[in-house]
Design goal:
This protein has one helix and 13 strands. The termini are far apart. The N terminus is likely disordered.
Amino acid sequence: MRSLAICLLLAAPLVAQPPIPRYEVKRATGRIVVDGKLDDKAWAGAPAVEFIFPWEFQTGAKQKTTAKLLWDDEYLYVGYECEDADIVALRTERDDPTYLDDAVEFFVNPKPSQTTAYFGLEMNARGVLYDYLMVDARYAFKRFNMQGVLLATFIRGTLNARGDKDEGWSLEVAIPWVNFEEFAKRPTAGTVWTANLNRWDGVEPNRRLSMWSHSGQAQPNPHAPARFGQLVFVQDAK
């Protein structure tokens, strides 16, 4: 019986992983003011990606999140738009565990030939940054702090007021290229990096994790660098 069970297991079809997504990071056509509003003209030329909800057993609300990316000579820009009926962000200090709040994440690997190390930025709805160097998808070196990061949020509602109904919040972050120079040169047109964009939404016990590229994990876990999507840098936003 044991041999039969093993044969049946080996014969079972493999569950196909979702395809790795690809995003063209266009060069910004104008100045971006990092104020959390994503209303600069340059953002209009950047395509938006909508996050997916991989784990149906989570009990949090399915609230829409979209993200956009741009680049120029100074920064890599990431912008998020989050629908949110109840905005909660309690963490206030750099490197606090912002992922426990309403928060978005940006994981980026400037050297896709390896998946051992990548950079993590976790940013809550009040604009607090938790940044680190992640190794082996297990060890977050939070003593690593990125230089010169610009970060702002814009809240459409009332923060931490649990009895009312909010509309949502948006976030912009600009990351200077110097932070990646030990891994890779600043990109040019045609350069490919890998990344994932995630959102932690709600408070315990009703939370939900959504993301751009499915991490392929059985439990809600965004740390899967082999499943990061491709960022392809292109010349302009025409």
